[in-house]
Amino acid sequence: MLRRIFALMLKEFLALLKDKRSRFVLIIPPLVQLMVFGYAATFDLKHVTYAVFNEDKGSISRDMIAAFHGSPSFQEMPQIERNEQIAVMLDRKTVQMIIHVGPRFTADMLSGRPAPIQIMVDGRNSNTALLIVNYAQDIVNRFNNDWVAGNGGAPPAHIVTRAWFNPNLESRWFFLPGIVGLLTLLVTILVTALSVAREREQGTFDQLLVTPLHPAEILIGKALPGFLIGIGEASLIVMVTVFWFKVPLLGSLLTLYTGVLLFLLSAVGIGLMISSLAVTQQQGMLGAFFFMVPAIILSGFATPIRNMPALVQDLTLLNPMRYFLVVLRGVFLEGTPFHLLIPQFWPLAVIGVVTLAIAGWLFRHRLY
Amino acid sequence: MNNAQMRLLGLIRKEFLQIVRDPSSIAIAFLMPVVLLLLFGYGVSLDSEHVPLGLVVEQPDADTASFTASFGNSRYFSSVPFRNTPEAVDAMMAGRINAVIVLRQDFARRLRQTDGAPIQLVVNGVDANTARIVEGYVTGAWGKWLEHTALQQGQTLNTPVEIVNRVWYNEELESRNFLVPGLIAVIMTLIGALLTAMVMAREWERGTMEALMVTPLAMREVILGKLIPYFILGMGGLALSVAMALWLFHVPLRGSVWLLFATSALFLLTALGMGLLISTVARSQFIAGQLAIITTFLPAFLLSGFIFDINSMPPFVQAITHVIAARYYVAILQTIFLVGNEWSVILPNALALVLLATLFLGLTRLKARKRLE
User: Fold this and answer.
1) According to the CATH classification, is domain A48-150 in 1.20.120.80?
2) What is the ipTM of this complex?
3) Contacts of B204 in chain A (CB under 8 A)
């Protein structure tokens, strides 16, 4: 039995790797994407372009604007001289933000009245707009504190903030473990989603079914390559994340690999299930997308699951990515111990076993 | 009708028959937009709501009560009281709350000393974005409380500089208004590539390409015959997506519908061209499918400016985004939907799409030879 499985596995590996282009597809793109996405996926703003429309002639407005000028998150564009320029610059995307300081700013500050400044932001991407507003508020808050302290009025209470697990609040640390998950999923789907569909389309699957191989043996032979390639790629991606991007890996490797193995089990299961449902490779590819896109969007990768409506939150319970992301972020950044992640581990195992069973059943029962 | 037109029509008819017989193409064009838009439109929101904050007051008295009162439950945050810090920290470790605010025993006493009382804020930094929002919120509540206490003591304490925000084009910061146009770009990328990624490879793999070669059809006609049916299908999918955006999600359309369709047609050509190129280069459906999975969804999702701001990416990543067609289409869609017919944004982006479409289709033409390997 072992010999038969081994022979089938060998054949699967040959089918995957004998072609130069196929080898290339499995190895190079995921690594390139890791490098590119690793740098692209961040909510930390840099080089936000802004212009200043300063109608105030006093020195305090200059100090306040200098605070923006000195921030690495903002990049100043030429000054605005006339009111009409504001709409033009925002409409044309010349700048992302405009600071408008009224003519009475310095006078208001000196007399102790509140001095308003207007900040206008391009809301085409409302998420970026919100981030820009928060950054600007931060700078103005700091300016205000300095101003109050400089005038001898210390507030009776102050906030002391500490950020655990990510002291500099780098959002890249949040996204990179997520990208490890994304790319592991991608590779597994690449290997499995078309494997049965291709044989069905070419008619070789019928031949496989009339061999002495038991469906369970076919299942194992088809699942192992995805599993092994998945482990290899995941390890590579984890190493790049740790050694190149310097994301701390606080938890134990045992916990991490338990998560990786269980996730691969479920991803291979789903990939093979899609593949054995499909009669043509076109259908297999369609199925891969119909699974992959929602799996990524509803995983908590970019948008918190907490923000989703209750019905969709329930739907995410079927999504293996959801559990894997919790494991990855926990093990990488928080050093979460094994036993606290068991609630993530068992659903992955259940999804894996159920989908693999369905895939094996479909081998013989999918009629076309 | 001359011979060339007849030949082309025949090929298009054959392609349509193939589409009808394997309904997966129709599913790509019409089912995918509906499913994805529903999931995204209803399921995804970047607006953090009901972020739970833990509140630990070690020695409750009038001063701490006045401070905690400033955390009136808003739509965005809800405060959860804890008896002591270890309990709150456990809750944060378990992910039940995102931050802990601690008022120490000596809060009231130190309020009256010169260096003031510390308010400890511990945030879970794993989700740095939410952590920053929490920080901003707590600072805001603290400011309100300072003003309030000053007022009670008969003083006026004004925040020196006050920011008056105006977010243009999307005043209510409705994230759906930018997610839906961005999602249309992602969907069209998928539709375009998925429809055509297999079609040339399929002919090679099944040997029917050789049959096509012995006909008088020129390679140019073969490509056109593949392009036209899927273009029609893709535009159908687009019309469906736009209709859903307008009437289901009520995204405002401030520019013209005609411009929207014209630029979308341009983008669809680019996406179909990329699919055809993949299909032609791969020659096997297996590899074409893998390439399509790799090159479409994730780049369009992460590198198009749809979620992550392109300006904030490092220069080499920004350079790479220039070959991602979705980048231009996202800019066009967000502008036509939310701003209007702003030509200074639309024209350069449309031009880039023309260049990319020419590049992809031209390369396809070059790579597709009437020759056996």
Assistant:
1) no
2) 0.85
3) none
